[in-house]
Amino acid sequence: MEDLYKLLKFKAPEPPYSGSIIKVKIGALKDEGGTRSKVITIGGEKNFPFFSIEEEIKPALALQILDEPINIPKQILTEVGEAINDPIEWAKICVNKFKSELLAIKLISTHPVFGVKSKVKFKETLERIIKVIDVPLIICAPGSDEKDAEVLEEAAKIAKGEKCILASATLTNNYKRIADAARKYDHLVVAETDCDPALQKSLNEHLLDSDLPANQIIIDPTSAALGLGIEYSISIIEQLKQAALKGDKSLQMPIACIRAPICSWSAREAWIEDSRFGSAEDRGILWETVTALSLFIAGANLLVLMNPKALIELKKLFKS
Amino acid sequence: MSKPSPITVYNLLPKKNCGECKVSSCMAFALKLIEGEAEIEECPYLNEEQKLKLVSIISPQIKAVSFGKNRLIIGGERALHRHELRFFHPTAITINVSDMLAKEEIKERCLAIKNFKVERAGEKFEIDGIAVTADSVNEEKFKEAVKIVRENSNLPLVLCSLNPKIIQSGVEEVSEEKPILCSAKTDTLKSFIELSKKYACPIALESSELNELRLMAKKAEGLEILLSIDGSFEKPFELLSNVITIRRCGIEEKMREFSHPILINLSLIRKKSLIQEKFFEPFLASMLIVRYANLLILHSIAIEALLPIFILRQSIYANPRAPSTVPSGLYEVGKPNGNSPVLLTTNYALTYYLVMGDLESSKINCYLLVLDTQGMSVLNALAGKLLYPESIKKLIKDSGVEKKVSHRKLIIPGGIAKLKGEIEEATEWTAIVGPEDSSELPIFLKKHFLQ
Description:
The structure holds two protein chains of two kinds. In chain A, 56% of the residues are buried. Chain A has one domain (28-319): Dihydropteroate synthase-like (TIM Barrel, Alpha-Beta Barrel), CATH 3.20.20.20. Chain A is globular, with a radius of gyration of 20 Å. By secondary structure, chain A is an alpha/beta fold. Chain A has twelve helices and ten strands. In chain A, helix 6 links the parallel strand 6 and strand 7 (188-192). The two termini of chain A are 38 Å apart. In chain A, helix 5 (148-158) packs parallel to helix 6 (175-185) and helix 8 runs parallel beside helix 11. Chain B has 18 helices and 17 strands. Chain B has helices at 6-10, 26-35, 48-58, 103-115, 139-152, 164-171, 189-199, 210-219, 236-251, 268-272, 280-290, 303-316, 349-362, 378-383, 389-399, 401-404, 420-427, 441-449; strands spanning 64-67, 72-75, 92-98, 117-120, 123-126, 129-133, 157-160, 180-184, 203-207, 225-229, 262-265, 295-298, 329-333, 342-346, 366-371, 409-412, 430-433. The radius of gyration of chain B is 26 Å and the shape is globular. Chains A and B meet through helix 1, helix 8, helix 11 and helix 12 of A and helix 8, helix 9, helix 11, helix 12 and helix 14 of B.
C-alpha cells in the first residue's frame, strides 16, 4: 500500500470546467496600426488562478493618473510630488520611474460637476500622452451618464488604432455609442456593472448585439474594496468566472478591476492618521494591495492601482 | 460543489413535523441540515442507523478540529467558493512566540498579543492563539517558555517543534488544554502519532510534497489532523497552489487523506528565506485567507499589517445568504429634540457602524434613519434599486420621525445626491446633500447645525 502511494506522482484534479476565458490583447504595435512599444494579453485561462499546479499566472497591473488633480489621497501626493499638477509628467513618472506596464488616465476634468479645466483641454492632454508614453493605455471616462459617451468618442478618435481600453460602458451611459466608437477606431470596451451578475450578463449581451466582437470586451463587475464589502467583489468575480468556465459565452471575457483597488481609499482605515492603527503609510499601501491581491486570487485578470508604492510591492511579490 | 438533494435527506427524517427541532417541518429541517445551519442531534427521533446515514450524506467534506482551552473550532468547510454555500469557521490567526526570548520578553509579547483588540462592524478582532516555537531546540528551554506563556495568556496554543521529545516536554505543561502539536515529518510521524494518542491532541503533518503528505495522513487516519505545507517561501504561488490542490482534493474529489484543515506557518518566512520584505507576510496571509487556510501562524503583531488581514477574514467568512444588517428604523444619537438634524443611511451593518461612529464622535444630538436596503451599502443599494424615493417616504412615515421633529429637513448621503429632487417630491421634505464619506459628517454638521 505504502509503495503504491510512493509510486504515484501526485496530480491536481482535472478542472471540472469545459469553457475558457477569451484572450484579449491590449495595445497595438507599429505594424498593427498603433505606436505602442509592446502589447499585453490577458485571459485565456481554463480554471481559477492556481487551481492547476503547472500554470504560472500573473495579473496585468496598471497605475492610474488623473488629468486634473482632484481628491488625491495625501500619500499619493507625497509619492508623485509636483508632477501631480501635470498629467504628462505624472504619466512619465508612472511609466519611466515606477515601470508601470499599462497606464490608466482618468479624464476627470470632463466631469460636469468635479471638472474645472477647460473641456477642450483633455484632448490635448491625451494627444501628448499618446506621443510621450509608449505602453498600452486605459482611457477612463469621468463617470457621468451625461458626458461619458461623448468623451470616450473623442478619446477613441484621438487614439485611433492604439487598441486602448475605453473605460467604461454602463447600462446608463450610452453604451452603444461607446461600442460603436471602439469598433470604428479599433479599441476595447470595459463593460461596467455593480456586483450584479444579471446586470453584467445583460450589458455584455447588449454590447455583443451591437456587433462588438467578444475579444474587444473586458468586464469590470465590481467597485467594493477591502472594508467596504470586498466579499461582494470576490463573490461576484467567482460567480461570473464560474459561469464563464461552465460555458456561458456572454460572460467569457477577462475581468478588470479598474475601480475597486483605488476605491480602497474610501475605507477610513486606509488613510486615517491615528496612532492606534499604526503606520498610515503602510496601511495606504496595504489597502490597495490586499484589495488587488484578493480580487486577483478570486479571478481578476487586470488590476488598476493609484499608489506607486502599491505597484512596487506587488511587482516584488510576483517576481518572487 | 455537489449538494445532497433535500428529498434524500428528508426521507431519512421521521416526517413527524413535530417542531421539536425548532424548525416548522421536517422538510425545512432537511434544508437547514444541507445548508449547515442545523445539527443532526437537534432531531430527537433519529435512531443510530439513521444518524449514521445522515452523517455520511451531510457531513462537511473538510473535518472540523478543535483546540485550546476553549476548544476553538477550525475547518468543517463544505464549499470551494463562498457563494455556493458559505465558509463556516474563520481562519484562526495565531502569533508565534520564540522560546529564545528572555522571560520578560515572552511576557511582553504575550501582553502585546492580549492587548491587540480592534472593534469593527460589531465584531471584535482578537488574536486567536499563540504558537510557542522551539527555536532553542532544547527541551528545558521550550518547557519553560510554554510555562511562561501559559502564565501570561489564556489563548489556545500551538506547540511548534520538529522534535517529538521537545514537543512532549512542552505538552506536559498544558496537557489538559489540547494544544496543536506542530509538526510531524515522515521520519517523526510515529512518535507524533503516539503523542497525539497519549495527550488527545491534534497533530499537524508537514511535507513539501503532496504525495508524501497524503501517505502521512493515511498513516495517521482516525486522529485529529491538520495538513501543512513545508513551502519554500521563495515561491509563494507554489505554496498557494498546493494549498488549493489539497482543498480541491478534499472537496471535489472527496479524498479522505486531504479532508482536514490546513495550517500554514508564515512566521517561518523570516527564518527560512531570503525574503525580508515587510509586506510579504500580510500578502501571503491575505491570499491564504481567500484560499482555504484554516490556521495561520504569523510573526508580526504590527496593527497596520494585522488590520487588513482581520477585515479580509471578517468579509470572507460573512454569510453571503444573510448580509450583515442592523434593524431598519429610527435611531437616536445622544439626546435629540424637535430641532435636531435627521440623517439617512442604509442598514448594511458596516455602513451603519461607520456612520454611527462618526455621528457619536461629532457629539451632536441627532436622529439617524436607517433604511432597509437588504444589507447593501449606499452605492450598491442605489445601483441595486433598493434605495429610492418611495422607500425613503415609507421609512419616514413608518418610523414616526415626523412626530419627533418639528422641521422637515433630511440629510441624505452624498452618494445619492442625484436623487435629491425625486426624494423631495416623494417625501415633501427638504433634502440636504451630506458628504460622501461619513467621516466628514462631524465637520458638516457643525457647519450647518451649530451656529
